[in-house]
Design brief:
Elements lengths: L20 E2 L31 H13 L4 E4 L2 E5 L3 E4 L3 E4 L15 H11 L4 H5 L8
Antiparallel strand pairs: 1-3, 2-5, 3-4
Length: 138
């Protein structure tokens, strides 16, 4: 390849150790897996590992509330292990703009449409309830 400035840049990440999982995507898709405990036991969460599948969905929901309903972080994928916790890569941020439905964070930012799709498939679980997050309706 020809590099006019004589320099090439490469962006790399460390290798993620463990089973790669896509917990949600930028089009409303959500990985669904039943937690080990029942909803009646929410107040008695003894082990965070019982709710690993719930945490990324809760984080996406939380990002919407924490941003004052201006952005939602999704397309959460990566690995989880008991030593390092979550290591996520390549997320998407849906941003709400006045100009239209698509946001300003690149081609995968679906703006308010992406936010609506996330919440149309998201069901608040034990972690959302524990944080005081309530269902979002459009």
């Amino acid at each position: 390849p020809d590099y006019p400035e004589g320099t090439a840049w490469v962006l790399v990440e460390p290798e993620l150790e463990g089973k790669f999982i896509k917990w949600n995507n930028n089009n409303g898709g959500i990985r669904r897996k039943k937690p080990k405990k029942t909803d009646k036991e929410d107040a008695e969460i003894k082990s965070i590992s019982d709710y690993i599948e719930d945490i990324p969905q809760c984080f996406s929901h939380f990002s919407w509330i924490a941003s004052n309903k201006k952005s939602l972080i999704c397309d959460l994928q990566g690995v989880h292990n008991d030593v390092d916790g979550f290591q996520l890569t390549d997320p998407v941020v849906h941003t709400v703009t006045k100009e239209g439905t698509h946001g300003k964070s690149g081609a995968t930012d679906k703006g308010i449409d992406g936010v609506r799709k996330f919440f149309s498939s998201h069901t608040c679980g034990p972690m959302c309830r524990r944080l005081g997050l309530t269902p979002v309706k459009f």
